[in-house]
C-alpha cells in the first residue's frame, strides 16, 4: 500500500469504528498504536481522545504482558525498541498497571485475521491472550473489537483452548458482528 492508501484506509477505519455504539457510549477504551503495515489507529485514537474518552494504551513488559497508560495526544507517545523486535509507540507518562484494562468499556485488539466465528489470530506473543484472560478473571465484559483490512477477515483461523471470540471486526468497508457468548 502507498502512503496515500494507508491514510485513506486509516480514515475509513476510524470512521467505521466511531460509528460503533460500543465506542460512542464508552467512557474508557483500551486501544493500541498501530505499527508497520497494521491498519492505522492514530486517527481513531485522536478522535476518541477529542470526544473526551479516556484512552488507555499498552506498554509491553519484559514477560510480554501489558501495562497500560493514558493517551493524551500524539505528544504523549514514546517510541520504544523492545530487543530485536519492532519498535512500538507506547504511552510516555504514568503507568496504571496490567489490571487497568479491566476498567475499559471497549477493548480494541490488534490481529492478523478474524474468522467467521469471531476467532482472532494474533501475532503469537500472547500479550492479548493475557489481556482477555485478565478480563475474564475480573468478570469484566467490555466489547472486544478487532481492527483489520478487508482481506484479513477469513473463513477459518487456528484456535487453541484458551482463545475467545471477539464481538466485532471493523474493516475499512464495514463492521461484522459476532454473537456474544452467554
SS element count, helices:
4
Distance between the termini: 40 Å
Q: Rounded to an integer, what's the Rg over CA atoms? A: 15 Å
Strand order of the largest sheet: 3-2-1-6-9-11-12
- The percent range for helix content is 10-25%
Q: Which shape, going by the Cα principal axes?
A: globular
Catalytic activity: (6S)-5-formyl-5,6,7,8-tetrahydrofolate + ATP = (6R)-5,10-methenyltetrahydrofolate + ADP + phosphate
EC number: 6.3.3.2
Cofactor: Mg(2+)
Keywords: ATP-binding, Ligase, Magnesium, Metal-binding, Nucleotide-binding
What does this structure look like?
There is one protein chain. This protein has 182 residues and is an alpha/beta fold. It is 23% helix and 27% strand. It is built from 4 helices and 12 strands; from the N terminus they run ααβαβββββββαββββ. Helix 1 packs parallel to helix 3. The mean pLDDT is 91.
Amino acid at each position: 500500500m502507498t502512503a496515500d492508501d494507508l491514510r485513506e484506509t486509516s480514515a475509513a477505519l476510524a470512521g467505521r469504528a466511531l460509528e460503533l455504539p460500543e465506542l460512542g457510549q464508552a467512557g474508557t477504551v483500551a486501544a493500541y498504536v498501530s505499527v508497520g503495515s497494521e491498519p492505522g489507529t492514530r486517527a481513531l485514537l485522536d478522535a476518541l481522545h477529542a470526544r473526551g474518552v479516556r484512552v488507555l494504551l499498552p506498554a509491553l513488559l519484559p514477560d510480554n504482558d501489558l501495562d497500560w497508560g493514558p493517551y493524551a495526544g500524539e505528544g504523549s507517545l514514546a517510541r520504544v525498541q523492545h530487543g530485536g523486535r519492532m519498535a512500538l509507540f507506547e504511552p510516555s507518562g504514568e503507568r496504571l498497571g496490567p489490571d487497568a484494562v479491566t476498567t475499559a468499556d471497549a477493548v480494541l485488539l490488534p490481529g492478523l485475521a478474524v474468522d467467521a466465528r469471531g476467532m482472532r489470530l494474533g501475532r503469537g506473543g500472547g500479550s492479548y491472550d493475557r489481556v482477555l484472560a485478565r478480563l475474564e478473571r475480573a468478570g469484566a465484559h467490555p466489547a472486544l473489537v478487532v481492527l483489520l483490512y478487508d482481506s484479513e477477515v477469513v473463513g477459518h483461523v487456528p484456535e487453541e483452548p484458551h482463545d475467545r471470540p471477539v464481538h466485532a471486526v471493523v474493516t475499512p468497508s464495514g463492521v461484522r458482528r459476532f454473537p456474544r457468548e452467554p
